[in-house]
Design goal:
Elements (H helix, E strand, L loop, with lengths): L1 H6 L2 E2 L2 E8 L2 H21 L3 H28 L7 E6 L2 E6 L3 E2 H22 L5 H24 L8 E4 L3 E6 L1
Antiparallel strand pairs: 1-2, 2-7, 3-4, 5-6, 6-7
Length: 174
Amino acid sequence: MVVEQQENATFYQYKLIKKWPITKAWFWTYLLLPVVALIAEVFYFSWESIGFWLLSFPLVLWIQFVISRSVLIMTVNHLRKKWRFQLHYPWIGYLPDQYMSYSTFRRVLLHTTWIGFCFTAVLFMWLPVSFSISLIVWHLWLCLPRMLILMRLMRQRKDGMLKLSREDVSYYIS
């Protein structure tokens, strides 16, 4: 009985279905993406792009925070206390700091992604092109790890629980 419990990792009544480690190769690739985008932006536009690049990162974080928090308030108000602003790689932004339902994670991520793109599209008319591109690149970069989770869980049951940690992503079902 003890051996069976150790082999089947559980979280209360939930059973571990999938676990994805965050590898060093993925870590370095993910960290190099903004650097490559910045080099391309400086090459195609101007040196001013560096300033826009630095300004757009906190702006995108703030936009994503406002959207995520608003979605949580409108849909599942009691979960706001379980989410906090994090600056731990690869989970940067307003994210849950404990177990959460997959459906809530998906809802918040999809709203954040699409509303963030719409907000950037509206600002595109008034902002310099390099600033708008910086906003889009940072937005994509911050959403990328979360979107990969959605893609990996596409064929799984939607009533599971997710746990995000620095070392891995775990998916549990009851």
